[in-house]
């Protein structure tokens, strides 16, 4: 009887886990299923299935241009956030630096500020420095939002790094710059790789900051939002499904590569 009651909490947690998983996957499954509907509207039952919506999306010049534009912004924001985040992480772990807690808190602040508040403040900032809205402003906003995630991942990796590695490099004649590029940076590789993938996914998915900082050229979320204003259709579901599949594949690949690099 005692073992029966002991197993009850585990069974409850298992049931809650599967219920939560169903809650997450059911809307996505319905969205993907509707992208195959052979009709111009979204409703059950699906009836006949077709791939015409995917063919139409892949031939949509506006959709392809928005994808390339989003990838370009994500690449620029990722490089900027990785450089800044690595520098901040190195500054926090450096010897003789005071106020490490304050530096860490300020670096992570963009991750905890609500997206709407962050977007409004960034819009005020770019207006104050006379920066026009558009590509540069979007990259700035996405970089600010992505830096905290790079800082956290780099710090986690740096705190497991044996201190004698850098000391050995300096004993062999390497200065601080050479020791960083030959020892510290390769050790940070798995963490930075995961952080960069995370930055790319954040940037491509960012809508609020792009909405406040964007110009006339739409990113992928802005394009989907504009199409939704004209009414839901299986074409929008096909776009969302393609984005979901690609981002999930990139995320899983990054997780696999990061785990393998850490094992090595």
UniProtKB/TrEMBL annotation:
Keyword Lyase: no
Pfam families the record matches: BPD_transp_1
Gene Ontology cellular component list: plasma membrane
Bilayer disposition of the protein: Multi-pass membrane protein
InterPro entries documented for this protein: Bact_Polyamine_Transport (IPR051789), MetI-like (IPR000515), MetI-like_sf (IPR035906)
GO process terms (BP): transmembrane transport
Location of the protein in the cell: Cell membrane
Keywords: Cell membrane, Membrane, Transmembrane, Transmembrane helix, Transport
Main location: membrane
Transmembrane segments: 12-34, 68-94, 101-125, 137-158, 179-204, 236-254
Annotated ranges, domain ABC transmembrane type-1: 67-254
Keyword Phosphoprotein: no
Positions in coiled-coil regions: none
Protein family membership: Belongs to the binding-protein-dependent transport system permease family. CysTW subfamily.
PANTHER family: PUTRESCINE TRANSPORT SYSTEM PERMEASE PROTEIN POTI
The protein's name: ABC-type spermidine/putrescine transport system permease subunit II
Lineage of source species: Bacteria, Pseudomonadati, Pseudomonadota, Alphaproteobacteria, Hyphomicrobiales
């Amino acid at each position: 009887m005692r073992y029966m009651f002991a197993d009850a909490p585990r069974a409850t947690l298992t049931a809650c886990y599967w219920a939560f998983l169903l809650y997450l996957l059911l809307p996505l499954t319905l969205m993907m299923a509707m992208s195959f509907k052979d009709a111009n509207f979204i409703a059950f039952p699906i009836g006949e299935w077709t791939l015409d919506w995917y063919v139409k999306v892949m031939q949509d010049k506006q959709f392809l241009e928005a994808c390339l534009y989003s990838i370009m912004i994500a690449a620029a924001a990722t490089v900027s956030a990785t450089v800044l985040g690595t520098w901040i992480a190195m500054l926090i772990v450096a010897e003789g630096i005071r106020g490490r807690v304050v530096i860490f808190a300020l670096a992570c602040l963009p991750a905890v500020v609500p997206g709407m508040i962050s977007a409004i403040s960034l819009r005020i900032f770019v207006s104050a420095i006379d920066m026009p809205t558009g590509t540069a402003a979007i990259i700035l906003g996405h970089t600010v939002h992505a830096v905290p995630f790079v800082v956290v991942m780099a710090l986690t990796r740096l705190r497991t790094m044996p201190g004698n590695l850098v000391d050995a490099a300096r004993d062999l004649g390497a200065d601080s710059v050479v020791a960083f590029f030959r020892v510290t940076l390769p050790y940070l590789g798995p963490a930075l790789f995961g952080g960069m993938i995370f930055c790319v996914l954040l940037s491509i998915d960012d809508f609020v900051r792009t909405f406040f900082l964007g110009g006339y050229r739409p990113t992928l979320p802005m394009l989907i939002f504009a199409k939704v204003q004209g009414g839901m259709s299986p074409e929008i579901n096909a776009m969302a499904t393609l984005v979901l599949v690609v981002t999930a594949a990139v995320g899983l690949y990054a997780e696999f590569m990061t785990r393998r690099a850490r094992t090595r």
